[in-house]
C-alpha cells in the first residue's frame, strides 16, 4: 500500500510553517496513523532529513497524547477514535492525506504536529481532584451511591484529556472537557463537598483561554472516550449553582 502524505512542518512557535509532501510505500492497511508516521520518519532520516515531531505514549487509546488532525478532522476519519487507533484501511491505495497539528488558538504549535495543551492541565489542576486529608476518608461502604449515579460518574470520568473537542469546535470551546470533569466529581459524595469551589475555579481558569460552546456537537463526534454531549450543559449548570450557593461549599 502507498500513501502520499502532506504533513505540516514547523520548527517552532515563531516559525510560519508549511506543508511537506512524502510518498510512503510498503504500508499495511492494519497499520495505524502513528505507525505511518514511524515509517515515514524512518524514510526521512535515512535520506538525511529531520524526522517529523509528533506526540505518542501508550498507543492504546488511553493517554490522549496522540492527537493530530487528519484531513481536517481531529483524530481522523473514524468517529470517536483516537489517532493511534485510526487505521490505514480507512484510506485508498495511492490516496493523498493531510496531517496537521490540532488547530486552536489555545494550542500553540511547539513543533510540527506537536502542540502545547497546557491550558487543559491548568483547568484540571485548580479543581480536578477532591481535597481529602490523609487518614480521614470514610470507609468505602459508609457513603451510599446508587448504581445509576456511579455509572453516570464513570461515563463522564472516561475523558482522557486529549483535547480533540477543542480542536473540533469552531469556537475553540473546552466545555465538553470541563463539563465532564465537573459532572463526574459532582455525582460522587466526597468530591461533591467542594462542588461550588471547584466549579468557580475551573470555569474561571477556562474562560480566558477557550471560546464559548457552539452548541453544534462537533466535540462529541470526535471524542475518543465517547463523552456524552450532555457534559457541556454541566458547565453552565455548575456555574449557576455555584453563584447561587457561593457560601455553601
TrEMBL record:
Xref: Gene3D superfamilies: 3.10.20.30, Alpha-helical ferredoxin
Biological process (GO), any one: aerobic respiration
Listed cofactors: [2Fe-2S] cluster; [3Fe-4S] cluster
Listed SUPFAM superfamilies: 2Fe-2S ferredoxin-like, alpha-helical ferredoxin
InterPro entries referenced in this protein's UniProt entry, alphabetically: 2Fe-2S_ferredoxin-like_sf, 2Fe2S_fd_BS, 4Fe4S_Fe-S-bd, 4Fe4S_Fe_S_CS, Beta-grasp_dom_sf, Helical_ferredxn, SDH/FRD_Iron-Sulfur, Succ_DH/fum_Rdtase_N
Superkingdom to which the source organism belongs: Bacteria
NAD is among the record's keywords: no
Keyword Metal-binding: yes
A GO term for molecular function: electron transfer activity
Ranges where the 4Fe-4S ferredoxin-type domain occurs: 150-179
UniProt keyword terms in alphabetical order: Iron, Iron-sulfur, Metal-binding
Family per similarity comment: Belongs to the succinate dehydrogenase/fumarate reductase iron-sulfur protein family.
Descriptive protein name: Succinate dehydrogenase
Origin species: Bowdeniella nasicola
